[in-house]
Automatic annotation (TrEMBL):
Annotated Pfam families: Carb_kinase, YjeF_N
Cofactor requirement: Mg(2+); K(+)
Residues the record lists as binding (6S)-NADPHX: 62-66, 128-134, 161, 260, 306, 353, 421
Keyword terms of this UniProt record: ATP-binding, Isomerase, Lyase, Metal-binding, Multifunctional enzyme, NAD, NADP, Nucleotide-binding, Potassium
Keyword Lyase: yes
The protein's name: Bifunctional NAD(P)H-hydrate repair enzyme
Natural source organism: Actinospica durhamensis
Job of this protein: Bifunctional enzyme that catalyzes the epimerization of the S- and R-forms of NAD(P)HX and the dehydration of the S-form of NAD(P)HX at the expense of ADP, which is converted to AMP. This allows the repair of both epimers of NAD(P)HX, a damaged form of NAD(P)H that is a result of enzymatic or heat-dependent hydration. Catalyzes the dehydration of the S-form of NAD(P)HX at the expense of ADP, which is converted to AMP. Together with NAD(P)HX epimerase, which catalyzes the epimerization of the S- and R-forms, the enzyme allows the repair of both epimers of NAD(P)HX, a damaged form of NAD(P)H that is a result of enzymatic or heat-dependent hydration.
Reaction it catalyzes: (6S)-NADHX + ADP = AMP + phosphate + NADH + H(+); (6R)-NADHX = (6S)-NADHX; (6R)-NADPHX = (6S)-NADPHX; (6S)-NADPHX + ADP = AMP + phosphate + NADPH + H(+)
Summary of subunit composition and partner proteins: Homotetramer.
One BP term from GO: metabolite repair
Co-factor binding details: Binds 1 potassium ion per subunit.
Positions that bind K(+): N63, D124, S164
Binding positions (AMP): K390, G391, P392, F393, S394, G420
Length: 479
């Protein structure tokens, strides 16, 4: 598992550790890690550090200090390092002395555009965990100079700890924020590196261990790693028979949207269950001859994907919601009936995208996307259900779990029609296989992402390709 802690926990862990170490040790560790990642990037881009032109954007706090010390290390290896200071009177004094001592040079904001245009790499040390709100004043001018240069030259921006201007704790971006190619973060992931829209500013995240420990703190978010998913996969026992492995019922698809039924069924058949039962008007057996048809006992239902808005759709939905087994509600199922009907006593998993989440919350998709932690938590609380809020990095909340889960194992090729139907069939099957709603959602999001990554190796991905890649994705995880 990978965890993200909030700023208060990072500050507490830092204090605890600093009390036991000589002054400056943590910043030295951070700067060494930062310089080493930066050197590796320069090595890949241009064969080495020697002669590389590096521009440091330096704010008024320790984030700028990290950049200055790392700049000093790069200057000692032969890089031509310039630091542009947002406010010369408040820049980290010891860091500045180190940079100057190593042969680095210091410039004012007026030189930022020229220096950025010539740089092989720009290091963003404007704001770290002490930042509040979007970038303002000189900070904003420096970020704009960096973005303009990068657009013209393709040089990477390496963010120190966080892309400056994003909210470390919530992932919100209130105004201008740096868009980095790589973020080198210290001690732990921060929620803002995992939660969109901030996560979209971070690029690839490299974690540098500086010795911080979090024995008591509660993480804001956790990200399942492959080994976590492996431990949760329902593998058949030796004495398994099809009913003991679980049966998932699918009340999805309609004459208008037959594809949803075919895709969800294909995915459910590859979700580890013993059988899939389809209840609806779509002819699925021609494509999936294994499927059982009509009513019968199931261990979980999936309802909503491609259900349409007809009276018959409403009836199918209420029948499923009234059952006493776990139910995954997707797409049309989230909008068709009064909200109260989604509040059930058996486990329920809601899988909205931003627009569907907005409809449930009475807000707009833009509001959901600008405050995703708040939105997913509000849904989980209001509906007393596990909620998978889909998106580039999907969020999963459960009313009983203190932290959130985030799935980062994904590709933008998943943004294709029918992709959500595949996810629903897969997650529903995992529910029927005995996983909790939280685990079914997390494992499904991971496997769905894996299938997308595998399928994307051969080019653009159709939702049917995701179904076809699911078994290989499962096998890669299961080992
Ligand atoms: N914790 C750890 O374990 C370690 C931490 N380390 C490093 O320290 C970093 C945190 O340093 P930090 O606390 O000095 O804060 P930092 O983000 O540099 O600057 C904050 C200042 O900026 C200003 N400001 C704020 N918002 C603004 C805005 N929107 N636009 C413009 N200005 C704005 C504000 O000044 P004010 O406006 O209040 O005058 C505030 O005082 C951390 O991210 C990591 O890199 C590592 O060295 C090793 C171990
Ligand atoms: N940019 C993206 N990067 C990664 N995954 C994405 C992206 N956009 C969408 N997805 C994923 O693709 C799926 C789309 O589901 P959904 O919006 O229900 O689509 P549809 O209704 O067309 O099936 C979700 O799992 C979502 O998390
Ligand atoms: K930064």
């Amino acid at each position: 598992m990978r965890y993200a802690y909030d700023v208060a926990s990072v500050r507490a862990a830092e204090q605890e550790l600093m009390a036991r170490l000589p002054d400056g040790t943590l910043m030295a560790r951070a700067a060494a890690g930062l310089a080493s990642v930066t050197a590796a990037i320069l090595g890949q881009a241009r064969g080495g550090v020697y002669g590389a032109r590096v521009l440091l954007l330096v704010g008024v706090g320790d984030n700028g200090g990290d950049a200055l010390y790392a700049g000093a290390l790069l200057a000692r290896r032969g890089a031509a390092v310039h630091a542009v200071l947002a406010d010369p009177d408040r820049a980290h004094a010891a860091g500045l002395a180190a940079l100057r001592g190593a042969g680095g040079r210091v410039a004012g904001p007026g030189d930022a555009r020229t220096l950025a245009g010539r740089a092989d790499l720009i290091m963003d040390g404007l704001l770290g965990i002490g930042g509040r709100g979007g970038l303002r004043g000189v900070f904003a001018e420096l970020a704009e100079a960096a973005h303009a240069a990068v657009e013209a030259t393709g040089a990477p921006i390496v963010a120190v700890d966080l892309p400056s201007g994003v909210d470390a704790d919530t992932g919100e971006v209130a105004g201008l924020a740096i868009r980095a190619a790589v973020t080198v973060t210290f001690g732990t992931f921060k929620p803002g590196l995992l939660i969109d829209p901030a996560a979209g500013h971070a690029g690839i995240v490299e974690l540098v261990d500086i010795g911080l420990d979090f024995p008591e703190a509660r993480p804001v978010a956790e990200v399942l790693q492959e080994s976590d998913v492996r431990a949760l996969l329902p593998e058949p026992a030796r004495l398994a028979q099809k009913y003991s492995r679980g049966v998932v019922g699918l009340a999805v698809g309609s004459e208008r949207y037959p594809g949803a039924a075919l895709l969800a069924t294909g995915a459910a058949l590859r979700s580890g269950v013993g059988a899939v039962r389809y209840d609806g008007p779509v002819e699925v057996v021609g494509t999936h001859p294994e499927v059982l048809l009509g009513d019968g006992r199931v261990q979980a239902w999936v309802v909503g994907s491609g259900l349409g808005q007809s009276e018959e759709a409403r009836r199918r939905l209420s029948r499923v919601l009234e059952s006493d087994v776990p139910v995954l509600v997707d797409a049309d199922g989230l909008r068709l009936l009064p909200k109260e009907s989604l509040k059930r006593s058996a486990p329920t998993l809601l899988t909205p995208h931003s627009g569907e989440a907005a409809a449930l919350l009475g807000s707009s998709a833009e509001e959901v996307d600008s405050g995703r932690i708040q939105a997913v938590r509000a849904l989980a609380r209001d509906y007393d259900a596990a909620v998978l809020l889909k998106g580039p990095f999907s969020l999963i909340a459960d009313p009983l779990a203190p932290g959130l889960r985030v799935n980062t194992h994904a590709t933008a090729y998943l943004a294709t029609a029918g992709s959500g139907d595949v996810l629903a069939g897969l997650a529903g099957g995992l529910l029927a296989g005995g996983l909790s709603a939280l685990d079914a959602a997390s494992v499904a999001a991971y496997l769905h992402g894996s299938a997308g990554l595998l399928a994307a190796r051969s080019g653009p991905v159709a939702a049917s390709d995701l179904v076809a890649a699911l078994s290989a994705a499962w096998q890669n995880v299961a080992g």
